[in-house]
Each structure stands twice: as structure tokens, then as C-alpha cells.
UniProtKB/TrEMBL annotation:
UniProt-listed Pfam families: DAGK_cat, YegS_C
Organism name: Latimeria chalumnae (Coelacanth)
UniProt gene name: SPHK2
Location(s), subcellular: Endomembrane system
Protein name, UniProt field: sphingosine kinase
GO biological process: positive regulation of apoptotic process; sphinganine-1-phosphate biosynthetic process; sphingosine biosynthetic process
Chief site of localization: membrane
EC number: 2.7.1.91
Length: 479
């Protein structure tokens, strides 16, 4: 099918073509083996003719191996491109996003618009782009046609990314979701049927249903209503040299915070709400800093406490005239890798904050998804938006019958599974979560890619990336 995207530009004789906007330049990355291996065929028959008609220039690179795309985007000159478009499945986009985040200039690099033309087997993000554009839910060539048409338009939307950290310290940036149990089992175990295209999932589901597994795990999360607008910022400061907190317990600061109900054992302060931390409370109290009152402590602050307690304490330390003895150092509880700080996440060896919810249960599946679609025809989270800042946490608990699970999965095609009122299916929008598998063997995936099995935690980073969505309500029909 060929769509004629023709247009006329009228300009007066004194406007030279040099003043007109230059054509968009896209870097097209094609995985020739994605899905059923037809990506190059679709490039020739549909994609390249359409984008040429839309006056888009491009360089097309065929990926030669796993991580090739990741390496390529680590080295590109950003100013040479208006966008990077993946012609494959979600796995290749995952590589591109993580390659961009590995660059020293990640903050700028991750803003380059990325797009996807579905030639994989799952094609979840393409399904979401198609859905948000208002098109009917379609798969295969129809989905590819819709997405190519949308690419030819220029609109770009902000897209949240979720940083996922494993217990060994690996950090990934994810645009789709984290899966454990039924979903990740089907995804990975059906890879051997890759030649079947999307049908591999149907077969995978049938096989997994035949021997339904359950997994015990602990799931902790920060509910969205708790995190919205007042994101906790876990920071620690150390006033050195420490003396085991002895000075602190005698200090006016200790009295002040005790009076405010903020003080806990061993000089650790935990703020209960932003209203309790008013810098003026500290400024009004006698200075806690004296040579005899060196101590170390931790404070948990929130962004909404204006200005942060740390600043106030730092100022006190400096004006006390003993900057060396009372040198203040500050550290975030972060994994030291590239990207924005995970300011909602505690360190792995720390318990989750008190405002998180923890459940321990037997699960059939845990799915933390941030897009509407889990596959091109699986509308798993119909309420999700590219930039809602949310992780949509869905769980199916053990005890569900095979028949009910099949009903849930079938309803997911239309996004009506929550209307079934299945007591084993739960949903909660969150901003961060920690998953600790207690069953020793299993499969965990991030955006469909297998990651090490064990505890992991994640938090949403709103609006971090840019997605080519070409949002449109135009109805297109193949010619
Ligand atoms: N030339 C290549 N040979 C082998 N593997 C490749 C090649 N190019 C890319 N890959 C890898 O193939 C994997 C799968 O690609 P991709 O996700 O794009 O397709 P898919 O798995 O069929 O689709 P989906 O993720 O939608 O199910 C990616 O991890 C990518 O790194």
C-alpha cells in the first residue's frame, strides 16, 4: 500500500529554499532477525517509500549482533539526527535507551526522539503508540502502516522511564515493564518458537497454563497517592569527626528534634511529614554545633520542605567558624551509575520507608507495566499514559483457577480484565517498588529481556525520554 503524502509549499521569490526548514534526518536501526525476520522486506515495500514521500532523510543501519545498536548510539553525534527509529521489536529499543543512558552526556542524549516501527514479535510500545493515536487495535502489517504514518508526522511526546536496579548493583532504564512469573516465563520460554512471530506467545501461554506455577515473594511499593507531589528524598549527611553520637545526645539540636518528635535511637532522625521540618525551628534554637557536639546522623527529607533541612544545617556548620572540624558531607542513597538519582529508593540493605506498603504472598504473576500494551494486542493497562509518572503494578495471586486466568488473559485483549472483578487480580498505581522473590528459581524480565534472578527495585523517572508518537485521529485505510 502506498500513501501519497504530497504537499505544496508556496513561497514568494525573495524567500530562498535555504530559509525553509531542512528535512528531518532519522537514524533507522533495523534488526533483520526481529520477529519473523521480515524487517528488511517491510523497509523496502512500505517504510522507506512512505518516509521518503514525507521528505524525511535517513541513514539505515542493519544491526549485526546483540548490543550492536547499544554501541552505535553510545557514539553517534547527537546534532546530526532528529530522531532514532527502531525497525524491530521492543528489545532493540531497550538497547537504544540504555545505550543513550550510558553516554557521559546522557541528560541531553536521552531527549533525542526515539520511535518504533513494529517488526518484532511482541511490539508492545507500537501497540501503545497506535492506541494513543486513536486507531483501532491492529497487529502485523496494519500496525506497521499506522506507526509509519504516525512517524511521518512530527509530533513527539515526553515518555517516562523507570530505572530498575538489581541486588548486584546493575541498573537498567526501562520503558515497558518488569515481569515475574507467568508473563516472564511465557516470554522467555517461548523464544525457541521465535520463527512463529506473535503466535509464539499463544503457544507459550498454552504450555505454561498446562503446568501453572506459583512463586512466593515479597512486594513492597510506594503507592502513587503517597508519592505524588511530595517525593521523599532520602539523603544522609555526616558531620565529621564523629564521636558515636555522644555529643549529639547532649546537643540543643537533639533537644529540638526530640521536642518535635523527630528523633529516634542512635541519632537517626526520621521526619514524619514535611510540616514537621521548618528550617526556622532550627534557626531559632541555640546552635547545636560546638567542638564537643560532633556527631553523625541521617535525615529523611522531602522535596516539599522549603528549604531543605540539609541546607539549614550546612549553613549552621559553616557560620559556626569551624568548617574543618565540622565539615559536612552529603550523600544520596544511590547506586553510583549514570542517570538521575533514584531518590525514592532506599539502599538494598535498608528496609523500605514507612510510607511503603509490603505484601508477602504466592503469586502467579507480578507485572509492573508503564505502557498501555504488553503486546500489540494485549491492552494490559488501558489507563496508562506515556508520561503519567506511574508504574502500574498488576498481580495475580495464587489460587486462581486456570479457567479464570484464561478469562483474564482473553479480556486483556480488549483491556476489560479489570471489569471481571477477579478477586485474585489486583492493581495499584505506584511510583516505586521492590520485589524480593522468595522462590529460589524463576525468570525476571525487564522490557522482555531476561535479567538476573533475585531482588530488584525500581522507580519512575517522569518525562525522561522523548517518544515519536505523531498523535493523530485521522483514520487511514490501506489503498
Ligand atoms: N543481527 C542480529 N542478530 C542477532 N540478534 C540481534 C541482531 N540485531 C539485534 N539483535 C538482538 O535481537 C534481540 C531481539 O530483538 P527485538 O526485540 O527487536 O525483536 P523481537 O524479540 O522479535 O521483538 P519483541 O521484543 O517485540 O518480542 C534484541 O535483544 C537484539 O539485541
Amino acid at each position: 500500500y502506498k500513501i501519497k503524502l504530497s504537499y505544496c509549499i508556496f513561497f514568494s521569490p525573495d524567500i530562498t529554499p535555504g530559509l525553509l526548514p531542512r528535512p528531518r534526518r532519522l537514524l533507522l536501526l533495523v534488526n533483520p532477525y526481529g520477529g519473523r525476520g521480515q524487517a528488511m522486506h517491510y523497509c523496502q515495500t512500505c517504510i522507506l517509500p512512505m518516509i521518503s514521500e514525507a521528505d524525511i532523510t535517513y541513514n539505515l543501519i542493519k544491526t549485526e549482533r546483540q548490543n550492536h545498536a547499544r554501541e552505535l548510539v553510545r557514539d553517534i553525534i547527537l546534532s546530526e539526527w532528529d530522531g532514532i527509529v527502531i525497525i524491530s521489536g521492543d528489545g532493540l529499543l531497550y538497547e537504544v535507551i540504555n545505550g543513550l543512558m550510558e553516554r557521559p552526556d546522557w541528560e541531553k542524549a536521552i531527549k533525542i526522539p526515539v520511535g518504533i516501527l513494529p517488526c518484532g514479535s511482541g511490539n508492545a510500545l507500537a501497540g501503545a503508540v497506535n492506541f494513543h493515536a486513536g486507531f483501532d487495535q491492529v497487529v502485523g502489517e496494519e500496525l506497521l502502516l499506522n506507526c509509519t504514518f504516525l512517524l511521518c508526522r512530527s509530533s513527539v511526546s515526553p515518555m517516562d522511564l523507570v530505572s530498575v536496579t538489581t541486588a548486584s548493583g546493575h541498573r537498567f532504564f526501562s520503558f515497558l515493564g518488569v515481569a515475574w512469573g507467568f508473563v516472564s516465563d511465557v516470554d522467555i520460554e517461548s523464544e525457541r518458537f521465535r520463527h512463529m512471530g506473535p503466535a509464539r506467545f499463544t503457544l507459550g501461554v498454552a504450555l505454561r497454563l498446562a503446568s501453572l506455577r506459583t512463586y512466593r515473594g515479597r512486594l513492597s511499593y510506594l503507592p502513587a497517592e503517597d508519592g505524588g507531589g511530595r517525593r521523599a528524598m532520602s539523603r544522609s549527611i555526616t558531620l565529621a569527626p564523629t564521636n558515636g553520637g555522644r555529643g549529639f545526645h547532649r546537643s540543643p539540636l537533639h533537644r529540638t528534634v526530640s521536642d518535635m518528635g523527630l528523633c529516634e535511637e542512635r541519632s537517626v532522625l526520621f521526619k514524619r511529614s514535611s510540616a514537621l521540618v521548618e528550617p526556622s525551628d532550627f534557626e531559632a534554637s541555640p546552635s547545636p554545633f560546638s567542638p564537643a557536639s560532633n556527631f553523625s546522623f541521617e535525615a529523611v527529607l522531602e522535596e516539599s520542605a522549603p528549604p531543605p533541612l540539609l541546607t539549614s544545617l550546612q549553613r549552621e556548620a559553616e557560620t559556626n567558624g569551624q568548617p574543618k572540624q565540622l565539615a559536612v558531607s552529603e550523600s544520596h542513597h544511590l547506586v553510583e551509575v549514570q542517570g538521575p538519582p533514584d531518590d525514592l529508593l532506599p539502599a538494598f540493605d535498608e528496609p523500605v520507608p514507612h510510607n511503603w506498603v509490603t505484601i508477602e504472598a504466592d503469586f502467579v504473576l507480578v507485572l509492573a507495566i508503564y505502557q498501555t500494551h504488553l503486546g500489540a494486542d494485549l491492552l494490559s493497562a488501558p489507563f496508562a499514559r506515556f508520561d503519567d509518572g506511574l508504574i502500574h503494578l498488576c498481580c495475580v495471586r495464587a489460587g486462581i483457577s486456570r479457567a479464570s486466568l484464561v478469562r483474564v488473559l482473553l479480556a486483556m485483549e480488549k483491556g476489560t480484565h479489570f471489569e471481571l472483578d477477579c478477586p485474585h487480580l489486583t492493581y495499584v498505581p505506584v511510583r516505586a517498588f521492590r520485589l524480593t522473590p522468595l522462590t529460589t528459581k524463576g525468570i525476571l524480565t525487564v522490557d522482555g529481556e531476561r535479567v538476573e534472578y533475585g531482588p530488584l527495585q525500581a522507580q519512575a523517572h517522569p518525562h525522561l525520554a522523548s517518544l515519536i508518537t505523531g498523535k493523530s485521529k485521522v483514520k487511514i485505510t490501506p489503498l
